[in-house]
Design brief:
This protein has a single domain, classed as SH3 type barrels. The protein is mainly beta. It has a 6-stranded antiparallel sheet, with no helix packed on it. A two-stranded antiparallel sheet has the order 4-5. 0% of the residues lie in helices and 44% in strands. The two termini are 19 Å apart. The model has no long low-confidence stretch (mean pLDDT 93).
Amino acid sequence: MAAKIRKGDKVLILTGRDKGRSGEVVEVRPAEARALVRGVNMVKRHQRQSGAQEGGIISKEAPVHLSNLALADPKDGKPTRVGFKFVGEGRDRKKVRFAKRSGVEIDG
C-alpha cells in the first residue's frame, strides 16, 4: 500500500499523552507501522558514556503508531485524511497525495 504519511510531513497527534501537539516526521518505519515525530512522545533514557557521547539521562523521541497521527492540512493546519489521485496524461501521469479536507495536493 502507498505511504500516506512520509518523512518531512507536518502531522498532528490525535490521541495519547501528546494529543493536539504537532511536529515534523523524522523517520517512518513501515514494517512496525510507526513514525518518529520531532519533539513529540519524548522519553528519558539512561545512556552509558562512550568515546563519542557523554553519559547520563537523555531525552529522545519514541515512535508513535501511524493510526494516532493525522496529516496537517496545507491550507488551514487542521487534521485531514489523505487520498490519492492521478495527475497528467499518458507518460506524464503521476500519482499524488491530496488532502481530503481541502482538496489541495500535498506533493507533486
